[in-house]
User: Fold these one by one.
Assistant:
Number 1:
Amino acid sequence: MKKTLFVFGVYMVGWFLTCLQPVFCQDDYQFDLSEIEKEIEKKPYYIGGFLEFRPVLWGLDQDSAFYRIRFFDQDRGSTLEQYNFGLRLEGSYQKGLAGLYFRTDSLLRYDYQGWNGDMALLEGYLSLKPNPRFTLNTGKEVVQWGKGYAFNPVAFVSRPKDPDDPTEALEGYYVVVADLIRSFEGPLKTLAFTPVILPVTESVNDDFGEAEHINFAAKLYFLFWDTDMDLLFLTGESRTPRYGFDFARNIKTNFEIHGELAWITDFKKKSIDSQGRLATEESDVLQALLGIRYLTSNETTLIVEYYHNGGGIDENDAGNFFRSVDRAYDTFLATGDSSGLTTATQLSQDTLATAKPMRDYLYLRASWKEPFDILYFTPAVTSIINLTDQSLSLTPELLYSPITNLELRLRGAFLGGPRNTEYGEKLNNYKIELRVRYYF
């Protein structure tokens, strides 16, 4: 039955797009023979990727809540080492109107638990492009919505970025995506419509939400008065309905402003009482982002973003959680009963263990390209400040490419904050990481 519904949904979207094609794909397109000749000269396939070695040293905070939850019955000392070996493969094959694209990650890791490995398909989809204004993709794909650098409240059909490393590739969902684009003369220069079908079953997109449902999303893009704008929505039974708006505009050639708004209905907001018990209530919440990107005359890029998470827990909830961990740990030391710490572990997985779980954050990043004329060298520093409890992370890094295809990145993350704050109660108080990548 669900397969029939999915096929019917794909058929309906196909019919709908056919109806829209006269609007987006009509009349003024002409074949350019020179462009066709260029395409013929190109190789129809591409294979690339990189090999990676990434050792990590963790400086543990043995008095923190998350250290006690994870290692309450172990003595791991003050540091942990981890060695990561990675292989990324990506490629494409283009034949006429059709193209195949894929990206995979393979990881082998050694740490205090021994060796373990994983392999994941990040993306793998078929793309059909019968003309320059219409594209239809089906398969596993990252649907990139939103204008933010570190946060994207309107990314309704993709996994969230890691704000500590937002440029890293994400894993996609299995979707059917179309793009219809039309250009105009006048204030409205471009109009684009992007509908998405996202099915959820016990084995397909099972981490998106409630299973056995087909979800629909769409984005309507405008380039109006040199301002990029999107209207977005998601509807279906796997997640509650949500609606969004984003924009980006260059005030000057070196100064850009961007923002996002997302309204999520019937969101399950969580709170934690003084006894460490979780309560959930449904309410509509707002998530918002406002940011700027500025390039100075000496090639320094500054990025500043304010992120409001209306569905996050507040300072009192976080404090109640951390105090409950302290009580559970004291009980374990006195009696050997670890049930309270087990309960705290389960509670943390839906609250403070998630990425940026509280209400308000400020993201700051400054990167300086080739300072003092040192070629292929970019130092940077990033900070994420939890405005709710005034704790923070500070991450300096050095990126250098001494030879073609080789990239070296050294970075350290230092966490600060008093007890009963997000960064003050993390598992580690610092992390030092070297990333060596060879591209091929």
Number 2:
Amino acid sequence: MNTIAAYTLGCKVNQYDTEAMLEQFEAAGWRRVDFADEADVYLINTCTVTGTGDNKSMKLIRRILRERPQSGVIVAGCLAQRDADRVSLPGVRLVIGTARRSECYALYSQAVGEGIQLRAVGDIQKAGFEPMRVTRHEGFTRAYMKIQEGCDRYCAYCAIPYVRGRPRSMPMDRLTDEANALGEEGYKEIVLTGIHLASFGRDTGATLPQAIEAAAGAEGVLRVRLGSLEPVTVTEDFARFCADTPKLARQFHLSLQSGSGTVLRRMNRRYTPDEYLRAVDTLRKHMPLCAVTTDVICGFPGETEEEFKESCGFVEKAQLSRVHVFPYSRRSGTRADKMPGQLTEAVKRDRARELISIGNRLEQAYVQRFVGLVREVLFETAQDGSVEGYTGEYVRTRAHGNPGEMRPVHMDEAQGTLLVGTALRDR
């Protein structure tokens, strides 16, 4: 039996795409093995969101070509779309970008049959929403469902619109069918993801609340979680809808990128700090204990010490629940790459360290607020005689129970960012 191994760099959407490609090989009778094992084919799904992503992707490609010269190599994803020449090294059998991934097995078979290196990288701006089906997900409780692809925001620092194309959405009938199938397969939580989830339905006439309702309506599904949103998504009506949807997780990832208004303008982000704060306040008005998590870039070109302090102060003021910090990474072809005032790596690292410290303190303070309360926890993995899972607010919780079940848990104490509690009988 032929074997295939895969490695994914980058985001959850990329992980979804990798799984969809792997399942094509399995449907043809192949067996997947661990990436560290010997395989007939190695699939590397690349990332190009940062220079680090580029470097990691290229390093991995070269290592596999060197260590497994008799194996076939497939290079897919964002770096392949952005720079097919760079990844088309001798020994790579198939280069496939961010479209035609649903044809991965067929394209690889064609390349082998013809004895050629095949490139399947076209004009991504002309691509539609690619039909891909994933039946296997990490663990057995949570499934990711990619319902949206592409972005047209063109933030000054970001290469994603160039490699993922324009926004397009999964049709509602397919979305409903896939959610129902995931429920039938036993997944208790569905995470709705996309490259720019806020654009869902713009091309089809559907809305994000309709997508949430379809996923929440699937039999067997106990919780629906959202991927990253834009602050402009959060209106009074949207927040009220979320509060009135019991199965929707009370965790909202609102991309911030900077708490400085002047930096946001240079980034071409389409909101101000005040507008961001209004979105946070609107969510908390309807769901007082909801988690608001975010991403922040530090060291953007021209970021002064004053602007950085302004950003830190805003993160504190907004009392965000979790902060993912990224030092700015130059991307050729973006406007920010040509901006004056590029900061040194040392400055960016120092600023990242300070923001991470603030984020850690805020997260611990947020978790502490749950001590003494009861929250529904979806248990996922056994851990040292107990089970760990997550609340709807995505707070990691340890208690006694069984993987795959959702139970109310009384939160007895907080250990850093971990809650330890006592599972109760269903209320």
Number 3:
Amino acid sequence: MSLTLAAPAESELPFLNVSFYRFLDIAESELPVWRASLKARTLHFGLKGTILLSREGLNGFLSGAPENLRSFMGELQSEYPGLAGLDAKESFSSDQPFRRMLVRLKKEIITMGVPMIRPKDTTGPRVEPETLKQWLDEGQEVVLIDTRNDYEVKLGTFEGAEILDLKTFRQFPERLQSAPEDWKEKRVVMFCTGGIRCEKATALAQDYGYKDVWQLEGGILRYFEKVGGSHWKGECFVFDHRVALDPELKETTTAQCFECRAVLSLEDQRPGGHSCQKNNTQAQT
């Protein structure tokens, strides 16, 4: 069975990192079976990372030796129902960005708190990175909406993007309801790190009456892979110990405070540079 993993640039770095998701129906009684099986297979291949499982599907972030991870992804597509053709975003790193392997059961694989929104059944159409770049190159009117949390947006976003000041994705429905009414009549493109939040965000926007709302196919990571950093300012936050990637999908010098989750520049990482907001003490990065 041929894989649909994105072909990476040649790399001598030892760790391949992938992120993937799929909205599909998994029976409640099958979730423990999936969990046990996925945990056993990932450990067999020496992988680390996190897979979230729920009745609405799965969401994964994994890292390991390239040959092992590719073998696991092949099994995932061929042996688990509903996962044929599973797409994954890839990058490489010099170090293992995860400490252990977790497979967790959740109510939602990405939490928005609006259970009637089911991306498996209805979601917004996808715009390929090359097409979005063309729209922006041509100066077409596009409302770019960043669906990520504020600490992610702090590191970088598209030029001119609309920022919703989200502390968590649960706030997205309320923020979208209070957005300018004329957005509903314009071409809107929503984006996030790997695409999963926009599956729900665009479906909700359609429910709210948006007439021309799109989601960026593969998210920011796929955009970087396909067209680089055109129209992008800064870095992209990722949910592992690399913290952030540049448009070449390389790890940056940015760190994160593990107490308050603040992102830390090189200046912040110097002695006395960051006072932790959670416990008001000097944070360890």
Number 4:
Amino acid sequence: MVRDVNVRYMDALLKRNPGLIDAAVKLHQSGQIPPNTYLLDLDAHRRNAREIAKEAKKNKLSLYYMSKQVGRNPLIVKGVLGEGFRGVVAVEVQCAKMLHRYGLRIAHVGHLVQPPVDDIDYVLGMDPEVWTVYSVDNARLLSKKAEKLGKRQDVLVQPVGKKDLFFDTMSGGIPEESLVEEVRKITKLPGVNVVGTTSFPCLLFNLATGKVEPIPNFHTAVRGAKTLERELGIEVTQVNVPGTNHAANMKTIAENGGTHAEPGNGVSGTNTEHAFDKHAPEIPAFAYVTEVSHRLKERLFTQGGGMSYSGGGWGLFPDGKLWVGGTDIAMEALVGSTAKQAMSNRLKAKYPGMDPFNYNLTLYPGTREFSAGDTAVFGFCTLQIFVTRAWHAVVEGIEENRPRLLGIFDQGDNLVDRHGHVQGEKAVRNLLEKI
């Protein structure tokens, strides 16, 4: 099952959003977008956000948007927030800075990365709704800065249970057995106000059952919130349970005690479950576009730079251990100089896995011949543009069969022309006013 995850995502892209493939080939062949570009469908992102927001409202949940997966693209963020999301979750301070300069609402900071000490004042000026602190030390720093600014910042804490599952570089929080003692210290700080709990990941796709399910972290966050209410009299207003959030599991989140979710890949239709569920309300909303570079014997190479290790998906193995997509993931690309030609040339590709360079991506054409400059369109689940070297471009009008390129962005979320020349923040704000 694991090996097929990206093949099935390509099936979904072909069947549910073929117009995006058509636009990708035309925009690349006409020279409007460069190779190594993620093409983001604004209308599809809005559509998906509406579906998630509808289910969230039905289940009395609030939503923050995790934008790192789409490279924190401001046009996509503006579109998503307009469909009922309260604001953006900034997984690291770069997310907050890149979007705040364009006037976009920053709602949750500190999860998964604590803002650097010298950035606390600046981030406080963004008036985030909540701020996750991992320790009393972090809370004390925040409190001192907030007090000087005459603020009292609402904060979340992350209780850590003995059976919780964390990715190695995404760990932090307060051991559950010390939660009451440590949070009692935080409640005495004048510049912060504890309002709830969070963790990550809280839900994952189970490869055995084929469903997204709560994992121990979810239950620890809920249990921790109840403990804080009971032992410290804290009025808990938020139990934030990010991870694999999309329309199909809003009900599950509510039934298990969550109050807030943070869809990211769910809005792009690229959570692992989307590779398997043919009837998911979300549709594929992105394609990776590049071009044929050269051939060496039985292998065809395309321009690379846009792949990330997590491109194969996240989930749980049947034995309960974490699965992070890697080199055993199947991948495919559509290759040709026209959309019709590309859709008839579906080639197997090698997923680069842990290779951080991925200068060239490998395809296996068999006896088929291709020319340098032919377009290659990749589709896969679990998008992570922010850790790649790719451009990201936004297109609208695909639903009306009138695709229009709105802009190309670099890794710093700067609007650029086809050759990478920065167009300035005013140009981005002018685009945002039209969305």
